[in-house]
From TrEMBL:
Domain of life: Eukaryota
Region (Disordered): 198-218
Transmembrane segments: 333-350, 393-414, 448-466
Protein name: Uncharacterized protein
Keyword terms of this UniProt record: Membrane, Transmembrane, Transmembrane helix
Amino acid sequence: VQGGSVVLGGEAVYSVALGQLLAQLRPGALLVEAHQVQGGIANEATAATAGDVSADPDADRPGPAVVPLLLVDDPRVCAELQMALDNWRGTVDEMDCMLYDMGALLWLQDNLGACTAATAVGDGGGNATVRLRALSARTQRLHDHLLAYAEALYWTETQRWLRTRQQAVTAAVAAAVAAAVVECTQDNGPGAATACSIDGSSRGQMPGGEASGDDGLSGHPVHQSSWVRCLLAAARCVRRMLRVVDRLLRLLQVVLGWRSEGDADTAAYMSYTAVFATNMMNVMQVMDVIGFLSVMVRGSTKPSSNGGSSGGDVDGRTGSTGLAWLDPDKACVLVAASTGAVMGALWLMLPNGTWRRISARAKWPRQVSYTLSKAMVAFLGFPQPAATIRHELGMSIFVLEGVILPAGVLMSPLESVFMGLIRAPLCARMWLLSAGSTFTITTAMARALALSALNVLTTVVVHMYIRVSYERQRRGAAQHAKAD
């Protein structure tokens, strides 16, 4: 062991060189006892193999001078756990407890394998099957606990590793129990199959005199009834669903700002979100330009198109049927698409990097443009083009302003709520003033609030999707970095 100077209350960085001892070790907990010598250098250590770890993590817990190391047989699991420990945010005792539990599970699995082999060759007498099933139940409980812990922390490689090892052990136990049942049936007759699977009697004893019924497995036939299997399958399904719900709730808390993942994580996530939002805003840029051109190349609306407002009679002149870029019915469209039109022109003139930086900051100008265009129609008496009236009164507005707009011009959930409360009365009044509208004040306001709620919901869903994508990319990058 190589270490450094240690002062009271300080930390020491050390490395352990196992050398030829590594070939003799199995996966499990390796205990290194460090001793302080003159000068504060930790340069003496004694190692104990994984077999020295008790199946009870609390029974043989060493003192503070003993450092636990975890030996694994998968390099990807090693890289993942090393990264997790490097970024550990809990206490040292919590980290040690996790390592001891991992080591205890590996020790139990090794002993279960040895017990399975002994049962297969007929060693251990009549109690062999009882001991095997009791040890299997204990191993399964600890495995389920550690697997749930790994799933909560998104240790994907560790989850795969734990499942693979446990499935192999479980299959070996099932084969050994089945072989023992067959042997007992041949020796004692068909009626003895159930009794042999339990130790040849109705009650067995675990090592140490404890009743094997404590593990909840004694007294059950080897072949469980179908309803029990269905119940166990349903329990596993419910447990999986609860884990998914727990993960979604955690993501929702992070997105809504009710839970923090740390300053460094927040800064990295905001940078990742900015790139995603810029790309989506470029999509909105294209839609702005297309919408602007499609409306502006049409003729003016007729005077009756917006509830009696005159869109084609300006200073006594009749509405034009050709291009009328300055007609009042085009004003709201011109204002709504003004930011998109300006950004489209800048795209032709500015370098790509400069334009993308400007586009990323165009979130609020776009929102102000969209909101101002609605205020012009709702309170300033400007008419609307016929195409936009059909859009406002139909269901397409829920697609555009409830789904596409919040995804393309991404706001925070709180900002989305703020903008929704501002736009709801504007939308309701626009719909009441539109020609052919059948809305009342109540139905128009309810529809406007539903549109705002859909906008907020889409914003939250998009942020959760970005968060999932960010965490997946971060785990992949960390694994690649460790592999390199």
